[in-house]
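user: can you give me the structure for this one chain? tokens are fine.
assistant: on it. calling the predictor now.
[tool input]
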Amino acid sequence: MALTREQMAMRVARELEDGFYVNLGIGIPTLVANYVPDDIDVMLQSENGLLGMGRFPTEDELDPDMINAGKQTVTARSGAAIFSSAESFAMIRGGHVDLTVLGAFEIDQHGNIASWMIPGKLIKGMGGAMDLVAGAENIICTMTHASKHGESKLLEQCNLPLTGAGCINRVLTDLAYLEIEDGAFVLKERAPGVSVEEIKAKTAGRLVVPEHVPEMTFAP
């Protein structure tokens, strides 16, 4: 069965390490803030100028002025800092973010990402994604494996305008966790109950399948 958005966020949270500074993009990545393991300390960064972003607020904690880059209301953890977006982008462009989690419309087997424009559709636009893919070496993309019409989003070559070229090496979809190596998607884990055959059928790009592909777990 395909992963839920929450399960995808839980799986990404396993990639967090103690002391990391982490930027969470719009969409599924924002949910990662709710699943940071209790035994590690990470600082979540938002490009609108917040370092130390916390989980989503309860109704009693709601502050309409405390938002992330996607204009969602958030909390701030102890020790958080609020500053200008110029300083926030200086942090991103200077390579001071240890891990970036982004959404995407398309990823191809060469590590190219398209995440900001679909011709004829009104979407949020580029935001800080271009800066993030240029300033970070450690990026995880989260996305559905295929569109609602069943068309693969893991391609031989991106069709949409690129956000960045050759910058993605890890992808988590609702079906699988994959790494991009030597011009191919390498299947590392599959969602519980999802077969290798289904993943093959929904991957348009070159796919390398090891002899054993374990089912995904969500515990740290």
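assistant: here you go. Helices lie at 5-13, 85-93, 129-135, 196-201. The longest helix spans residues 5-13.
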